[in-house]
Amino acid sequence: MPPYAKWVLLREPRDAALLGALANVIGVSASFPFSHPNLPVVDRDEVERIAALAIAAVRR
Known about the structure:
Blueprint: E1 6-10, H1 18-21, E2 25-30, H2 47-59
Parallel strand pairs: 1-2
């Protein structure tokens, strides 16, 4: 069974290490300014956008 899709919430900068430790990360939300070269980064309050991206990722 492939790893399930994950949306990662980074509460503080040191949590960014999670991105290298987890498989099948489809997006990120952070409580601080953050960018990623390959993953969408969405404000954690944009629930509808996160949901749309998560649904699209799972359908691929």
